[in-house]
Here is the input.
Amino acid sequence: MQITSGTEINRQTLTGNRDIYIQFLNQQKNQSFFCCPYPGNPGDRLIRRGTLQLLTDLDVKTTNDQQQADILLFPGGCPTIWPDVMDLIVKTLENYPDKKIVIGPATFEFGFTDWPDIFSRYANRIAGLFCRDNRSYQNLTTAELPETIVQGLSHDPAIYLKNFKWLEELKSDLSEEYILVALRRDKEMLPSAEERLTRKIMPLLSEKKSAKILHWAKKSAKLHKLKDIRKSCARDLPIRDVEIWLLDDSQYLQTICGAKEVHTDRLHVMIVAAMLGKKVFAYKTLYGKLENVYEHSLKGWADVTFVDA
Here is the structure.
């Protein structure tokens, strides 16, 4: 399914004629779903919220009891990148041997976890794997997983919330009080020159010293970005640099609502800001997560400019 405009997303999604994820969910209406929470931040919880809303609108049965479910649905995100999430998926497969597992529209990236081996090993238990961007879909299809697993390309479930009442209520509280900067300092951050140099010398150092220097390199790169942002944005507004992943869900949304413009390399900060009509300056991550989701799902309606930095 291709999104032609933001106002069409819910109608087109619910028709589901060309979206294999929607087709899959419609075909499972005799099954009961448990939408799994897993380690993450407010962006991940938005994915789950969008998924629950989608299941409700499709009249798919859900339950709050894993034991009573037929299918355990991990709603999306980046499970293939974070070992703790993949460990949780494996633990779920082992603890619920009578359940099928589905992963909703997510990022599939090589080099972080051994997800192709895991999904091949448990292929008889995995009903579907779905992607939220074309790069992930290419990675998934080249992983040569068993054909019994349904595979497809859809959209990040948080985008499904675009035209719902909760977003309209948020829009009533919009303001332009500051320039919001919400940047990463984790392994998804695009490595700076300092970090690349640091990683070259790390084998010569102790583990403790390596960690300390790597932390400094990431912090230094962020400070450089902040300096460039201050030069480029409106001088009459303060810069608000926020570790937004530490906020609760309400603070997360209200922080984005209060910004005149948003500078971020966090996918769901970009998505929420775009859905609220904010100007977004997006920064690249290690593997192009923001660019890929933008090209597949936001291009044509979101006010997003990608910054080479």
